[in-house]
Amino acid sequence: MMEENIEDDVSNNANFRIWFRALRALEVEDTTSELDSVFKKLDKWTSLENASSNAFYYKYIVKFIQAYEEGTLETSSKVQTDLNDLLVDLRNSSEGMLKITIPFEWFSDYGLGLRRLISNSELSQMDRMNAIKT
Fold first, then answer.
1. In a 3-state reduction of DSSP, which class is residue 30?
2. Rounded distance, CA 16 to CA 57, Å?
């Protein structure tokens, strides 16, 4: 249903946040395929006119997680170039928006794939020792 909402209005940031949170709550056996599928959907949606800046944000995050889990984050110049390009796209899509430096998603070593992300609300429910691995 959320994907239908996104298809109807790719400019709505809230739809992407809700969709992404729902994806993280799902249990999946093959996180690699899940990441590939999510990236393809985000790639499609970010190619549309007036695409949400959150679509670009989550596209960057998914690519980062893919590279991290493949072990290519620091070793592949193509991955570095792709991530830099995605960051430029994200900056361009959010041009003119209020710049906030409060993180809403945290990267962790818990789980695999999208379950590596912990939202601020989830983080506040965790104890300090188990929250973030530094």
1. coil
2. 10
Task: Read off the pLDDT of residues 30-82 as tens digits, 9 standing for 90 and up.
Answer: 999 999 999 999 999 999 888 899 999 999 999 999 999 999 999 999 999 99
Distance CA 57, CA 23 (A): 15
Q: Render pLDDT for 1-41 as a digit per residue (tens, 0 to 9).
A: 778 878 888 888 888 888 888 999 899 999 999 999 999 99
Contact 117, 105 (CB under 8 A): yes
Q: Are 83 and 60 in contact (CB under 8 A)?
A: yes
Instruction: Encode 68-96 in three state secondary structure.
Output: HHHCCCCCCHHHHHHHHHHHHHHHHHCCC
Rounded Cα–Cα distance for residues 103 and 105 (Å)? 6
